[in-house]
Amino acid sequence: MSTTVSPLAPKSYPDMPEIQGVQFATAAAGLKYAGRTDVLLATLAAGTNVAGVFTKSKCTSAPVDWCKDRLDGGNARALLVNSGNANAFTGKKGKAAVELSADIVSRSLDCPTGEIFLASTGVIGEPLPAEKFAHVVDDLTFGQDGQAWLEAAKAIMTTDTYPKLATSSIDLDGETVTINGIAKGAGMIAPDMATMLSFIFTDAAISNNVLQDILSVETGSSFNAITVDSDTSTTYGTFTGFVRSTNVGR
Fold it and tell me: What is the pLDDT of residue 240?
C-alpha cells in the first residue's frame, strides 16, 4: 500500500448501511509487514447464498482453486481475506496453507470448512504463513462489527492508495434492498480480474442460480471490460464476487 494518495481519491467515503447477517473484523497478523492491518474476517448468517466469478488465468492461486471447488455447495458462513501474500505460484505449500486457513476459521466459528471462502492478495511465489491466522482469528470472531466497512476495505489493500467502497439501495416489491461492495486492485487486472478482489453483499432474497447468473453477466460488462495499465498477471487469481442473500430479520 502506497503512502502517497492518488489525486483521484475521493474526498469522502459513502455512508455504508449495515446489512443484517454480515459482520466484519480486521487484524494485523504480520504476514509481510509488522503493525499493518492485513487480515479481514467476514462472518455471514447461516443460510447465506453465495456466487462467485474468478480470473480466467490458467495459472490460478491456491485460494481461487479452493473457492472454485466449494462454490457448488451454495452456502457461505465466512470469508477470510489477507493482503501481503497472494499464495500464488506456491504449489503444494499453497494448498496446505488454504487447508490450514479454513481449518482455523472452522474451529473458531464451529462451521464446516466447505462454507468458508478464502482470498489472498500481495506478493507471489512466497509461501503463506497461514499458522499466523491462529493468533488472530479467535479475536476476529468475537470482535465482529456490522458497520466496519471502511476498515474491511482498507485491510485488503495492496498497491492501492485508498480504499474502494460503494453502496446502493432500491425498492423491490415494497421492501428496501441494500447492496454494499468493497474492492481492491490498482493495476494488473487482466486477464479478467487477475489481481482484483471485489466482495459484494446484499440482503435481497435471491436464489443461488439467479445470483450466479446476475453476477456473471454484470462482471462481464464492468470489471472484465476494463484494464488499468495493460499489464497482466499470470499467477494471481482472486475471488471476484461474494454476494449474500438471506431472509435474516424478515
Answer: 46
Catalytic machinery residues: 195
pLDDT grade for 234, boundaries at 50, 70 and 90: low
Angle at 133 between CA 139 and CA 160, to 5 degrees: 95
Domain regions of the chain by residue span? 22-225
Q: Which of 104, 30, 102 is nearest to 62 (CA)?
A: 102
Nearest residue to 89 (alpha-carbon basis) of 69, 59, 63: 59
Looking at residue 43, its pLDDT comes to 96
Beta partners for residue 116, in sequence order: 78
What's the predicted TM-score (pTM) here? 0.91
Fold of 22-225: L-amino peptidase D-ALA esterase/amidase (3.60.70)
Contact 121, 239 (CB under 8 A): no
Task: Answer whether 181's CB lies under 8 Å from 219's CB.
Answer: no
d(CA 17, CA 35): 29
Q: What is the pLDDT of residues 82-100, one digit of tens each?
A: 999 999 999 999 999 999 9
CA 240 to chain centre: 7
The average pLDDT across 18-40 equals 94
Give the CA angle between residues 135, 71, 223 to the nearest 5°: 90
